[in-house]
Design a protein that fits this description.
Elements: H1 15-35, E1 38-48, E2 54-65, E3 69-76, E4 80-85, E5 88-93, E6 98-103, H2 104-108, H3 114-117, H4 122-125, E7 126-134, E8 137-144, E9 151-158, E10 163-170, E11 175-185, E12 203-205
Parallel strand pairs: 6-12
Antiparallel strand pairs: 1-2, 1-11, 2-3, 3-4, 4-5, 5-6, 7-8, 8-9, 9-10, 10-11
């Protein structure tokens, strides 16, 4: 699953403007993270090989309720789900008719979704580099401090107030691009939206 395995920089004349943009990039990200309790958005996800060739494309809806609860509902090209209630994570593949169940703590260690899911100091988890404004987005580069992290780099793109893009580069130089649309901050989301019931006949792997 791309999410589990598988969250974006000439001269002296522009140095002050570039510095101001860089400061704004980090400020926007931190303000967004601090203000978010729940989140809902449509997403488009693309997986590129090291040469930039498209390998996989998918789309669906993302819901988040801090702390610990989230779900990714993949609707294209076929139904897949990643659901967490804060204790367990279910990874469901409709084509395989299989659901894998894992403890929340095991899966989330080092996973990019922890950036949204948990309230943590960015500098504690990442080396943070402001990249300023590019293509109408303010970018922040996050390099994980832990060597065992599955991703080498995470780039986050913001507009003036909301999350727009997360770009992840893994250890094999593959790039995952997740673009968000129709994003709603702090909608009302019930806890039972973050539970999973396996369809009849589903093969269960793990402690359901």
């Amino acid at each position: 699953m791309p999410l589990i395995k598988s969250l974006l920089f000439f001269c002296a004349l522009f140095m002050l403007a570039g510095t101001a943009q860089a400061a704004k990039s980090r400020d926007l990200l931190e303000q967004f993270l601090n203000a978010t309790n729940t989140l809902q958005a449509d997403f488009r996800q693309r997986l590129l090989d090291p040469g930039g060739v498209l390998m996989q494309e998918s789309a669906g809806q993302f819901n988040l309720k801090r702390p610990g609860k989230f779900r990714w509902d993949y609707k294209q090209p076929y139904a897949q789900q990643i659901v967490s209630n804060g204790e367990k994570i279910w990874i469901y593949d409709s084509e395989l008719e299989q659901v894998s169940v894992k403890p929340y703590s095991d899966v989330l260690s080092g996973a990019p979704v922890i950036l949204l899911d948990q309230r943590r100091d960015l500098d504690q988890e990442f080396e943070v580099e402001d990249k300023g404004q590019v293509d109408d987005q303010y970018w922040v580069s996050l390099t994980p401090r832990k060597d065992d992290n599955e991703f080498k780099n995470i780039r986050v793109g913001m507009d003036d107030k909301q999350l727009r893009t997360i770009i992840l580069v893994d250890a094999f130089e593959q790039t995952t691009i997740i673009e968000f649309d129709h994003l709603k901050m702090n909608p009302s989301l019930a806890d039972d939206e973050f539970e999973f019931s396996a369809p009849p006949g589903t093969d269960v792997v793990g402690d359901y």
